[in-house]
Amino acid sequence: xxxxxxxxxxxxxxxxxxxxxxxxxxxxxxxxxxxxxxxxxxxxxxxxxxxxxxxxxxxxxxxxxxxxxxxxxxxxxxxxxxxxxxxxxxxxxxxxxxxxxxxxxxxxxxxxxxxxxxxxxxxxxxxxxxxxxxx
Length: 135
What we know:
This protein has helices spanning 63-73, 94-117; strands at 2-7, 10-19, 22-30, 37-41, 48-51, 81-88. By secondary structure, it is α+β, with helices and mostly antiparallel strands. The protein has a single domain, classed as Ribosomal Protein S5, domain 2 (2-Layer Sandwich), CATH 3.30.230. Helix 1 runs parallel beside helix 2. It is elongated. InterPro entries: LpdD_chaperone-like.
């Protein structure tokens, strides 16, 4: 699934892939899409983020966007979720920075609505019991 929102002359996209009951969400946009952060969560675990260094030695701040989305979708997750995020707008304005947070919340709402409407009725994995061994 692909979700988008455009405001203040830039577009932010969320490409959502489901892998069984798990989700991979790619948040990109602006003039130089990239992977600046990786955020992981489930419906009942704490949100965790890794921030990669940028070209100038500082760390990317895309986790601000990913974590807004994560908080919007967390209660509706059927499994684990990994969010990569990388949005870069050249010479971003203060208004565009402010609107990016609103855009991320909008994407989170769109994804959350999709999660509620999607059937993730996938068979559960079967494991050997403690008394069984592979034949």
